[in-house]
Amino acid sequence: MKYFYFLVFLLVWQDAWPAPDDICAPGNTHDRGQVRHVYDGDTVLLEDGRRLRLIGINAPEIGRDGKPSQPGAEHARGALVRILGRNRQVSLRFGKERNDRYGRILAHLYLENGRNINALLVEQGFAAAIAVPPNLDLLPCYARAEAMARKKGRGIWSTDYFKPVPARRLNKGVKGFRLLKGTVRKISPSRRSIWLELEGKAALRIARKDLSYFESDEIARYTGRTILARGWIYHGREGPVMQIRHPFSLQLAE
What we know:
17% of the residues lie in helices and 31% in strands. The chain has helices spanning 2-13, 73-84, 117-123, 139-151, and strands at 31-40, 43-46, 51-54, 57-58, 89-99, 105-110, 128-129, 165-166, 176-183, 186-189, 193-197, 203-207, 226-235, 240-243, 250-252. The strands form three sheets. Strands 8, 9, 10, 11, 12, 13, 14 and 15 form an eight-stranded mixed β-sheet that branches. The chain is globular and about 55 Å long. Residues 1-20 have low confidence and may be disordered.
């Protein structure tokens, strides 16, 4: 029930929000469109048939094929519908990489008044900020928006699901986008990756192609330290793995 009142408040109050500051502003947009359908809090279908994934944010997943939705997923979708309003006209700002592996176009979305839709969703706690190279141009905007939401315990940050999962408790039932907390026991290089081994059998993987985003000695400093990581958990042959592509996704928890 509290989410219902919050969404009503969002609908009434959004026109009173101040315009985004410089780091969230649209700058040069590349295209325009109209949203036909909202799949979830970070994916939409445009009237011309293009599927679009919002850059720099990740909203809880809507359950499909009999799988349950993640906590807050329906609220995130509802929030995006309300932010778009009736005419659903948007401006698109593409990143350096314009399509993902699923064929969706990748873009920052803006309302006709210049407000950054991605940032509004994060600021109100309906999505988390993510760093997926090379589309990093508005990372400072989304990182700051998330910091505000987490400080106030808004939306997903008020749920147990989005609290950090201890690495030693990871099992096959824990997957998808999560926050992970653990101590780095060992750092092991391989031909294609650098592996940060945590308690239990969990590990963080940094591909060598992404090492350019890290300072030269940054990764080595994590040895023996407790870290907080964010990303998608999958289960490899040796145990749970989370790929880390940018320093934003890995920070000291001490």
